[in-house]
Amino acid sequence: MAGGGGGGNRLDLPVVDLASSDPRAAAESIRKACVESGFFYVVNHGVEEGLLKRLFAESSKFFELPMEEKMALRRNSNHRGYTPPYAEKLDPSSKFEGDLKESFYIGPIGDEGLQNDANQWPSEERLPSWRETIKMYHASALATGKRILSLIALSLNLDAEFFENIGAFIRPSAFLRLLHYPGEVDDSDYGNYGASAHSDYGMITLLATDGTPGLQICKEKDRNPQLWEDVHHIDGALIVNIGDLLERWTNCIYRSTVHRVVAVGKERYSAAFFLDPNPDLVVQCLKSCCSESCPPRFLPIKSGDYLKERLSVTYK
Ligand SMILES: O=C(O)CCC(=O)C(=O)O
Ligand SMILES: [Fe+2]
Fold this sequence. Notes:
It is a single chain. This protein is of the alpha+beta class and about 325 residues long. It has a single domain (about 15-110, about 125-315), classed as Jelly Rolls. The chain contains seven helices and 15 strands. The protein has an eight-stranded mixed β-sheet. A five-stranded mixed β-sheet has the order 1-10-9-12-7, with no helix packed on it. Helix 1 links the parallel strand 2 (about 15) and strand 3 (about 40-45). Helix 1 packs across helix 4 (about 130-155) and helix 2 crosses helix 4. Fe (ii) ion binds near residues 198, 200, 205 and 259. InterPro entries: DIOX_N, IPNS-like_FE2OG_OXY, IPNS-like_sf, Oxoglu/Fe-dep_dioxygenase_dom. Belongs to the iron/ascorbate-dependent oxidoreductase family. This is Fe2OG dioxygenase domain-containing protein. GO terms for molecular function: dioxygenase activity; metal ion binding. It comes from Oryza sativa subsp. indica (Rice).
C-alpha cells in the first residue's frame, strides 16, 4: 500500500441493464442510485468488449512513450492532449504538488477532413491504430451515454427525449480522458492520491477501468470524519456517475458525489468519458425539482461557463 487513505468500506451499487425490456424499472433503479450515491453500474451497454480491450491497449502504448514525445502533445488551450503527473490537482486543497496520474484528453471529434478537430493525435507512424480506436470508443461511449441520459430523463418523470429536445446534444461537449496511475511511488508522495477528491463537472461520466482497485466515493463530504467507500470492479460493467450539472438541474436531488483514486501500489489504467451538454445550453432547476418551500439552490448558468470555471481551478 503506497499510502493515500487506505481501503474504504465496500459498497453495493445497483447494476442497471441497458437492454432491459422494462425501461421504467431501469429508470426507477437509476433514480434510487442517483438519490442515494450518484453512482451505479451499467451492463449490456453496447460498448463491445473487444473495443474496450483495444482502447486499453492503445492507452498503454501511448503512456509508455518517452516523456518528451508525450510532452510534445501537451494539453492545448482547447483542453486536448497530454497532462503529466503532478500537473493537475483535482482537489485544490491537497497539500501535494499535484495528483500522481498522467492523462490524455480527447474532445469532440471533428469532421473526417479534421478541419474542425482541435484534438492532438500521436503520429500514425508511431501509433498506427490509435486514432481509429479512440474515435470508435468515443462514438460508442457517446451513444451509450445518450441512452443512459434518456433513462435518467425518464427517472425524473420527463420525456425520454428531454435532453435531446432542449439541445444538450447539438454539439455535446464529450471528452474522453485516458488515465494512467503509477504503481510504486516515492516516499515523498506518501499519502498523495492517484486522483484527489473531486466531483465531476458535467452531466454524466462513464468510467471503464482495468479492474485495479483504487476508486472510492464519499457520500457525505461534510461528515466528520469522512467515510470513503470502495467502488469495486464488475467485469463487463461500466461505472456511471452523476456530475455537477445534473445536480444543479435536479436541485441536489441527484447527487454529484465526491470521489478519488487512492494509490494501491499497483499500476492502474482507466478511461473516463465525460458527457456534457452543448456549451451554450443554460442549466437551470427543473420545475419538478423545486417549489415554494424548496426554491432553486443555484442560479441558471451556461454549461460552458460552469465547466470553464471548474477547470480553471484544477490546473496550475
Ligand atoms: O480513474 C478513475 O477511476 C476515476 C477518474 C476520475 O474520477 C476522473 O477522471 O474524473
Ligand atoms: Fe471523476
